[in-house]
């Protein structure tokens, strides 16, 4: 790895970048001085403005909660509720699955090959016997199975710790080198010393192996994998709740919503049962978030399509769960590193898939996604694993500013190189969505990041704004030029829907039409203009107001106000985590700005991502965390 570092630092490309990044090259220019003066003026004006003071006033929620009559009633019920939770916690912790998984993980860290062999050998033997009895083996398949059994038999006696195996892995060394630059040999796992399996451990592992082999034989392979996940995942998340948050960050854009909701629910239950092990401070915006959920329940109860709205209500519960879990768990170095690493991997995977769709698959663009008359050359808009290009743009619009904050927070050259690659790939994928709203949202997000944390970034933005038209293809520049043009059928269509939605607000301002697209469509058909059918209002705030009434819209705005007011105070600190927080804030600002032109909460996965980011922002803004970059207490 040292040779790779020396080679990168001595390469011509890196030396050219270092040359042009030297302050002496550009600090003496009139343009640089002028931009610096302007950026300092804007930053000082913003920080000293009434608007800034309004957003950074002292939080009063904690005192209001303590002094409220409702809270006094809750406190009276706290003791019996706590007793019930303690009983449930004791039952769970004494259960066989939790004890077995905890013991198995410890054994796997101490002797991974022997532990795996004690499970896989009985499992493979069971499959061999069942196939021999109920089916017929080809000689070739039988030989392969016997060779596997022999290999597993010899693995029973291999007593090498997981730390020893990882330290000799090139992939592991590369990850360690990129992530923190430490020597992988200095990294040790808890319980990493080599141990031995007791007779009881061997018998338990053998029984599990036999049962797994029988299930593998009789069940479909995918069903078997799902069953194993259903059995193991609750125990793993209960033992390590941070794992649930990290897995959610990983699979949110990649897997169906059902899987994400299941992991979120397990994580929330684990946090409740282990409440004593977490900090007691309430997250910012807890009151408006609860009010938002209450208004969702009222809207579902009085919906014009009550059955469909009640089906959508559990999703809103999941939104609050992920917000609360993120605000509670995203407070220590291990969780921060795991969540951010999984999130970067997820963004990288979905971006590469989108780029693959554009250049290799060339997926055709649906007629509803583009005005063919105005953009005949726009043949492909990528969407990766999400519903449509706008949804993918919304997800990347939240993630890219966070990556930008990570880039600024990183102090190592190799980390900056890795983040630069991910930023470039994700930005290219965002461009290939051709989502104009997402482009505008990202532009506002980067501008917000520059204003609240790094004003000199405005220089780069200005340079990009000047040079970009010379290098961008015509299909992109034409798409940008069409923003706000009424000649584009999509823009005219949105204005028609907004007018109809405002008319609807006059009659449904109190409790809304109900949750979900079915309730909106049923009410909208009476207000539709010129046959412009729609399943949502193409505006986040109009849609929330129409679905949940004035109370829901007020709760959303209040929640944003409280969250940002807490975050803007912490952003002013010099901690490296303040750059990460600035990236999250910027992403949320861009997302909410994008909501002015589209209903960015149409996909439940995007809504869960929003609430997760909001919870992460609340956790960092609380100040009760260890800076994952420095290991020091955050200011």
TrEMBL record:
Asked whether the keyword Transmembrane helix is assigned, the reply is: yes
Pfam assignment, any one = Wzy_C
Where it mainly occurs, coarsely classed, is membrane
Q: Which UniProt keywords apply?
A: Membrane, Transmembrane, Transmembrane helix
Q: Where in the cell is it found?
A: Membrane
Cellular component GO terms held in the UniProt record: membrane
Its transmembrane ranges are 107-130, 142-162, 203-219, 224-243, 249-273, 285-307, 313-331, 338-359, 392-411, 418-451, 457-476, 508-524, 544-565, 577-594, 606-625
Q: Kindly indicate whether the keyword Transmembrane belongs to this entry.
A: yes
Where does the source fall among the domains of life? Bacteria
* Residue ranges of every copy of the O-antigen ligase-related domain listed in the record: 422-557
Give the way it sits in the membrane: Multi-pass membrane protein
Protein name per UniProt: O-antigen polymerase
Q: Which organism is it from?
A: Tepidanaerobacter acetatoxydans (strain DSM 21804 / JCM 16047 / Re1)
